[in-house]
Amino acid sequence: MKRVITALAGGAVVATVAFASASALQLNGGYLQASDSKSTVCDSDGVDVHWGLETDNNTVSNVRISGIDAACAGAKMFVKVDGKKYSTTVAAPETKITFPAVDASTLNSVRVWIQS
């Protein structure tokens, strides 16, 4: 009986540590680059994404992308919000794309990419 209780307690400790470690992980969607040129990399270290959250009505109406390498300037940047695509021309080191306000609590899918 003592062995069973010790095994269960040990399992609980391992599960708790694993859960706590996972909750501390930072999310990083990584990056995918595509181009018709021979060099497909214009920003090898990725970019930062900042949402334009309106706290008075809990909506998102823009996304600001910063940390864009100068080599990406002039390329097209796209944002796809819940299936609707918006685009602009990249201005390094920061670009902002606006779109019709979306209720933040219903936002399901957002994708950002740069296409040269």
Shape: elongated
Distance between the amino and carboxyl termini: 66 Å
Uncertain ranges: 10-39
> So how many helices?
1
| Secondary structure tally: strands | 6
Strands of the biggest beta sheet: in what spatial order? 1-2-5
* Helicity level: 10-25%
The averaged pLDDT comes out at 74
Strand content: 35-45%
Describe what this molecule looks like in 3D.
This protein has one helix and six strands. The chain has 116 residues and is α+β, with helices and mostly antiparallel strands. It has a domain at 48-115. The strands form two sheets. It has a three-stranded antiparallel beta sheet, with no helix packed on it. A three-stranded antiparallel beta sheet has the order 4-3-6, with no helix packed on it. Strand 3 (76-81) and strand 4 (84-89) form a beta hairpin. Mean pLDDT is 74; it is low at 10-39.
Keywords:
about 120 residues, alpha+beta, 6 strands, elongated
Summarize it.
The protein is an alpha+beta fold.
How would you summarize the topology of this molecule?
Elements: H1 2-23, E1 48-54, E2 59-66, E3 76-81, E4 84-89, E5 94-103, E6 110-115
Antiparallel strand pairs: 1-2, 2-5, 3-4, 3-6
